[in-house]
């Protein structure tokens, strides 16, 4: 058997980070007629590279298969839209963006973010590989190209005299199997004095907050500032600033520039976060080898908790049908014998079934019909928003459960 190699530095991968067993693609939702058909399951086993310390999965399915028809639409979270509107205002002010600027977003989804730049008459271009999602953005008037991003797409943009003053990507850097081609493409697509911002879940939070459910096949990499800095530097890009954000359970927003752009200087925030990661041991392989123990312990605690509830005759339903929820449910073996159903605001998921577990997905109104005793919040990063939306369950003494970082009941 050929050894897997690091997707960045090509070192053989020898060290396991965590093995979550076999799992289906987490956004491969099923129709009723597919329930009796076979499903593909793939190893969900992450490794740490001993040289560059990039955490990663092996590639089992192509990006074309995973992303060309995608179930995730970004516009169904109010708190996320608010975050994007605040980002837009910050970027316009911070970098003096105007009607003569060009904003390009990679993996622009349904226009959830670019709409805010567009509303302020700033030229935008979205690059989105999922045809079904891009159609929604185009219908909003967002200029969108249906392509995967990399060197070839970047060169095409340059040939059309399109380079970015602001080149951005939210929760996409972890989704690319060929991270070298992706970052090299950004270097090409960025104007000489332009700025890149990328947001992604922070590996330090994944470890500290036990966020193992954010591991799924659509996420090829799990990113620290240490690893990302090396990748960008290899492609003549310098990270000069960083922000720690609360989104997605704790994310980073990095700011990058061309190496030879001396107008933008290294921030104190960047230096402080570099030290924070080193203090946490993220510069040592041994730190990563301990993670699987806490994941196994969390699985046992969650299952024991749910078993006790079911033995007492209580009912449990889920809220949300996120990719992270599918990792959690499949790894822990939580199926219809635990959850009667789950709900999701996205009409694109309603009427379908979760991959692997085959739990049905309804509209949120189903909760008012069945009045469950407990609601398990699968997108735990949105727990405050969901508690507010479902505050009415307290009318029948309903309670919320969050599974991460540890199982907890919210009164």
UniProtKB/TrEMBL annotation:
Methyltransferase putative zinc binding domain span: 6-67
UniProt keywords, alphabetically: Methyltransferase, Transferase
Domain C-methyltransferase: 246-405
The keyword Hydrolase is assigned to this record: no
Residue ranges the record marks as coiled coil: none
Any GO BP: methylation
Name of the molecule in the record: Class I SAM-dependent methyltransferase
Source organism (scientific name): Pseudanabaena yagii GIHE-NHR1
């Amino acid at each position: 058997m050929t050894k897997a190699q690091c997707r960045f530095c090509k070192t053989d991968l020898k060290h396991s980070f965590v093995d979550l067993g076999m799992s289906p693609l987490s956004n491969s939702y099923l129709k009723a007629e597919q329930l009796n058909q076979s499903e593909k399951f793939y190893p969900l086993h992450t490794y740490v590279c001993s040289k560059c310390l990039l955490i990663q999965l092996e590639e089992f399915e192509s990006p074309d298969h995973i992303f060309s028809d995608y179930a995730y639409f970004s516009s169904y979270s109010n708190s996320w839209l608010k975050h994007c509107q605040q980002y837009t205002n910050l970027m316009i002010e911070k970098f003096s963006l105007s009607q003569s600027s060009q904003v390009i977003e990679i993996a622009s989804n349904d226009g959830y973010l670019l709409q805010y730049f567009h509303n302020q008459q700033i030229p935008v271009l979205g690059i989105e590989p999922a045809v079904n999602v891009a159609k929604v953005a185009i219908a909003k008037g967002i200029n969108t190209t249906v392509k995967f991003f990399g060197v070839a797409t970047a060169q095409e943009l340059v040939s059309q005299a399109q380079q970015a003053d602001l080149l951005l990507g939210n929760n996409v850097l972890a989704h690319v199997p060929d991270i070298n081609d992706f970052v090299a493409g950004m270097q090409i697509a960025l104007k000489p004095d332009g700025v890149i911002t990328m947001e992604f879940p922070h590996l330090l939070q994944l470890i500290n907050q036990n966020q193992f459910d954010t591991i799924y096949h659509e996420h090829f990499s799990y990113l620290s500032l240490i690893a990302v800095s090396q990748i960008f530097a290899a492609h003549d890009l310098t990270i000069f600033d960083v922000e720690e954000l609360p989104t997605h359970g704790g994310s980073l927003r990095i700011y990058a520039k061309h190496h030879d752009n001396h107008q933008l200087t290294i921030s104190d925030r960047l230096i402080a976060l570099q030290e924070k990661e080193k203090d946490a041991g993220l510069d040592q392989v041994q730190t990563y080898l301990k993670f699987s123990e806490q994941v196994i312990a969390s699985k046992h605690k969650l299952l024991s908790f749910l078993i006790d509830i079911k033995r007492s005759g209580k009912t449990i339903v889920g809220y949300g049908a996120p990719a992270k929820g599918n990792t959690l449910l499949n790894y822990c073996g939580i199926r219809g014998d635990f959850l009667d159903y789950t709900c999701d605001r996205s009409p694109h998921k309603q009427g379908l079934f979760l991959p692997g577990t085959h739990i049905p997905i309804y509209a949120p109104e189903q909760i008012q019909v069945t009045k469950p005793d407990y609601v398990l919040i699968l997108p735990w990063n949105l727990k405050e928003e969901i508690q507010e939306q479902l505050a009415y369950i307290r009318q029948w003494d309903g309670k919320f459960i969050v599974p991460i970082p540890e199982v907890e009941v919210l009164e």
